[in-house]
Design goal:
about 160 residues, mainly alpha, 7 helices, globular
Length: about 160
Amino acid sequence: MSRGGGWIIVLSCLIALVLGVVHLPSSWPHWLGWFRPAWLILVLFFWVVEVPSRVGLFAVWCLGLPVDILQADPLGLNGFILASVAYIGQRFSERLRMYSMLQQACLVFVLVLASQWLRVLVLGISSERAWGWDILSSPLISMLAWPAVFLLLLRIRTGARIE
């Protein structure tokens, strides 16, 4: 097995970053934006669980800084959220690999929901932004998207022999 493939991890995280911040065309209905999964959390969670030695917490935190800038969030918020997800994934990676797809999807739901609540809490304190029940849509869609993301990244991982 090859130890290479770090560029694949970085490229997949960059693609997830772009998918997470790109806006829908203005001709599309606004409510379609609610059906956007947390791409970066999904991709990051996969890599942290599957190859925990290849993804460091500091690198993950640094990955959150561009998200803060692109989403106009307080600096460090998304870095903290992503580092927290990465820590949970690394800490329990051996156990999480034994979980079924449904159990992993439920865990993804809980992680994305916790990240959304933390984001709402911090943004509510810092800028008094209003929130609604739409914060539940991203965790639900992420949970439904997890099997497809998992299988796609697993195929890429086995094809590139990333270990």
